[in-house]
Design brief:
Order of helices and strands: HEEHHHHHHHHH
Low-confidence stretches: 1-7, 31-35, 44-76
Strand content: under 5%
Largest sheet: 2 strands, antiparallel
Radius of gyration: 43 Å
Number of helices: 10
Strand order of the largest sheet: 1-2
Structural class: mainly alpha
Number of domains: 2
Shape: elongated
Mean pLDDT: 74
Length: 287
C-alpha cells in the first residue's frame, strides 16, 4: 500500500516538472520571433525618420498618352525603405504554423494560458484521485487491524452469542466465554472510538456500513447486554459511558431484554467467580 501511494506522489511531481518545462519552452519559441519582428520595425522607423532625400519614381509612358507618368513618391518612401531593410522573412516556428492552420490566432499567449488551465485542472483531478486512493488505503489498513484483533478472541465467544439469553455455565470453557464477552465490548468501543471520534471523516464510512449494524445486533442478547452493563460499571471513562448510551438507547429497544440483562449483570461477579473455580478444578483433574 505504501509503494502505491509513493508512486502516485511521484507521478504528480513528474507532471508538474513536465508542465513547467513545457511552458518555458513554449514561451521561448513564442517570444523570440515576436521580439525580432519588433526590433526590425523599430529599425525601419528610424531609417524613415532620418531620410531627407525624396525618392522620385518615373514610370514608362502611359498607354494612350503622350506625357510621362511621373509621380512624386514621397509617400512611398517609408514603404520602399521598410521593404529593403526588412530583408528575408523570419522563419516560421512550428507553433505559428499550428496557429495559422487553426485560423491565425492573433496572440500565441492564448495557447499558453489555455494549456496552463488544462494542466492545472488535470493536476487537481490527479490530486483528488490520489487523496481518494490514500483514504481507501487508510480504511483498509484500519479494518484489517481491527479485524485481526477481533479474530484473536472470537473463537472463545459462545456460539450464536448475539442471541444468547443466559450466561454460559456448566463446563470448563464457561469462564473463558464470559471473559471473551467482556473483551468483545472493549473491542467494540475501540471500533466506535476510532471511526467516530478520532477519524470520522476518513473512517466514518466503516462505521455506517459495517460496525454499527454488527454491534447493535447484540442488543437482542440479554447475556451480551449484561456483559456491556458489567464493563460499564467497572469503567469510569466518560467516552465509554457515551458508547454505552449509543448501544442501549439508539433505535428500537426491547425493555424485557434489558431488564433480564440487568438481572444477569447483578450476578455477573458471583457467576464468573463460580465458573473460574470450576475451570481450575477441571485443570487440576487433568494434570
Amino acid at each position: 500500500m505504501g509503494t502505491f501511494r509513493i508512486s502516485h506522489g511521484f507521478t504528480l511531481t513528474l507532471c508538474w516538472v513536465v508542465f513547467i518545462c513545457f511552458v518555458d519552452i513554449t514561451n521561448a519559441l513564442a517570444d523570440k520571433p515576436t521580439a525580432e519582428r519588433v526590433e526590425r520595425t523599430a529599425q525601419v522607423t528610424r531609417l524613415t525618420l532620418t531620410s531627407d532625400t525624396p525618392l522620385t519614381v518615373t514610370f514608362s509612358p502611359c498607354p494612350g498618352s503622350g506625357a510621362d507618368c511621373s509621380v512624386n513618391a514621397d509617400s512611398a518612401d517609408a514603404e520602399n525603405q521598410a521593404t529593403q531593410s526588412e530583408g528575408p522573412e523570419a522563419p516560421i516556428t512550428k507553433l505559428q504554423r499550428i496557429a495559422r492552420a487553426l485560423g491565425s490566432i492573433p496572440d500565441t499567449q492564448v495557447w499558453i494560458q489555455a494549456l496552463t488551465v488544462c494542466l492545472v485542472i488535470f493536476s487537481a483531478y490527479l490530486s483528488l484521485r490520489t487523496a481518494r486512493i490514500s483514504r481507501l488505503n487508510v480504511q483498509v489498513d484500519a479494518f484489517q487491524k481491527l479485524r485481526a484483533e477481533f479474530l484473536s478472541f472470537s473463537t472463545k465467544l459462545p456460539i450464536h452469542f448475539w442471541t444468547q439469553q443466559e450466561l454460559p455455565e456448566g463446563d470448563c470453557e464457561s469462564y473463558d466465554e464470559l471473559r471473551a464477552m467482556e473483551r468483545y465490548w472493549f473491542q467494540s468501543f475501540d471500533e466506535w472510538y476510532i471511526t467516530q471520534v478520532l477519524h470520522p471523516n476518513t473512517l466514518g464510512h466503516l462505521w455506517d456500513t459495517y460496525y454499527r449494524n454488527a454491534i447493535l445486533k447484540n442488543r437482542e442478547s440479554a447475556a451480551m447486554i449484561a456483559a456491556l452493563i458489567h464493563t460499564k460499571k467497572h469503567t469510569g471513562a466518560t467516552l465509554y459511558k457515551r458508547f454505552y448510551r449509543m448501544v442501549v438507547y439508539q433505535g428500537w429497544w426491547r425493555i424485557s431484554t434489558y431488564r433480564r440483562a440487568e438481572e444477569l449483570a447483578n450476578t455477573w461477579e458471583a457467576h464468573i467467580a463460580t465458573q473460574k473455580k470450576l475451570r481450575d478444578a477441571a485443570l487440576k483433574d487433568t494434570t
